[in-house]
Each structure stands twice: as structure tokens, then as C-alpha cells.
Amino acid sequence: xxxxxxxxxxxxxxxxxxxxxxxxxxxxxxxxxxxxxxxxxxxxxxxxxxxxxxxxxxxxxxxxxxxxxxxxxxxxxxxxxxxxxxxxxxxxxxxxxxxxxxxxxxxxxxxxxxxxxxxxxxxxxxxxxxxxxxxxxxxxxxxxxxxxxxxxxxxxxxxxxxxxxxxxxxxxxxxxxxxxxxxxxxxxxxxxxxxxxxxxxxxxxxxxxxxxxxxxxxxxxxxxxxxxxxxxxxxxxxxxxxxxxxxxxxxxxxxxxxxxxxxxxxxxxxxxxxxxxxxxxxxxxxx
Length: 287
What we know:
The chain is mainly α. Helices cover 80% and strands 0% of the residues. It has two domains: 14-46; 50-285, MetI-like fold, CATH 1.10.3720. It is built from 14 helices and no strands. Helix 6 packs across helix 8 and helix 9 runs antiparallel to helix 10. The model has no long low-confidence stretch (mean pLDDT 85). The complex is composed of two ATP-binding proteins (CysA), two transmembrane proteins (CysT and CysW) and a solute-binding protein (CysP). Keywords: Membrane, Sulfate transport, Transmembrane, Transmembrane helix, Transport.
């Protein structure tokens, strides 16, 4: 490079202080407007009439039922999606077969399909007017407007999170260590537990945290399949909508604040793990 070219050349990130300051200000303003302001509004409205009123509203039987139902749905859907996500990632990254691209597209389907459409599909498949749903209702095991339907809808919406976190990590890491362990006589289960799982545990944890956050906050698909039966099939997001439509602002925002707090705890756990195990996470990505 000539002397003139060197003088005229600058790094792509070598911006003037004014440009850097403007970009930082724009980013901070966007975060404040889209994230911080709504969060502050939720908690301000929740405590508008004091702590006692907020806590009392959370002790309402309908609110307690919504909290229990939301946690129950997460307890079912997150472990099942973790297992399905691991299986799907293993199958996609360790085997070559026709239709692999189509399978990956199917995994991404919940990202592109409206949750309301997903809920409607579940109603059409398992509703009382369908062959399968009618038989299950006759046997005393209804799917739609009951816990199983809500779990199915939540699992559909949250399915891609674990698989999508694991697939790129497992592709990058390859399968040489698993093949070496198999050559030495280890069983398939032992290879997974002692070789594969330690290498993917951080990606798996991230996927589980994201899956859990979405499962607790899902509204569209659950609203369709639950029937919004107060005290029975109304989750926290649905109960928040009901309370707000009834002009019970403190109760609605108190429950919304609790749901927000659960999401913030999820992010806090993720951040703490990243800080405490930064070197180990970086080593995992390098290998």
C-alpha cells in the first residue's frame, strides 16, 4: 500500500467521536423507549395504590390459579422440548439423509406461523368435533379447553428454541470425539452423557432458558385452545388481559409485573452463568 493510500485508509470501525456518540445515543434511546419505559410503566402501575394492594391482588384465587397453571405448563413443555430439541439436533448433525433441509424448515415453522393459527390447528385436530378429539372426550380425556391442549400449543410455539441453539454448536464441534469413544467400546448412551452433553450444555441451557421464558409468556396459541376459562385454563397472560379489560388495572399490572419479574430472573440467571463461566463457554465455542 502506498503512502497516500495509507493516509486515506481508515478502519471500518474508525468513526469520528460525533458519529460514535450519535450511534450510542440512538441505541440507548431505542432501548429506553422499547424496553426500559414499558418495564417501568408496568411496575409503576402495579404499585400505584401501594404494595399492599398489589400483593392482595396477587392473592386473588384467579391470580393464584393462573400462576399455578403457567408454572405447570412450563414444567411440562420445557423438559419435553429440551428432549425433542436434543434428539432433533443429534439427528440433523450426525446423519446425512434426504430431506434434511426440509426437516430444518419444519423446525423453524413455529417462527413463521402465527401462534393463533397453530392454536386453531390444534382445535381442529383435537376438538370435540374431530374424530380423535371426540373419542378422547368420550373417554374422559379432553385435549382442547384443558391442560393437555395448552401444553401442546406451548410446545409447538417453543419447540425451535432448544434445537436452534444446539444445531450450530454441534455442527461446529463435529463428531470426532464421539467416534473415538465408540471405537474404544463406549455405548451410545455413555457417549452422549460423557462426551456430547458436556460439550453442548451451555447451548442447551440457553435454549432451555429461552424456551422457558416464551412458554410462560405465550398468549396467542394458548388463548385459542384454552377457552379462557377463569380459574381453570386461564394462564397469566390471559388473566392479565381479562383483568385489564375489566378495568382492574392494579390487579392486571401486578400480575404483569410478576410475569416480568420471572422473565428478568431468567435473563439474570443466564447473565450470571455467562460471567462465572466465560472462559469455559469460550473454550466450548472454540472446539
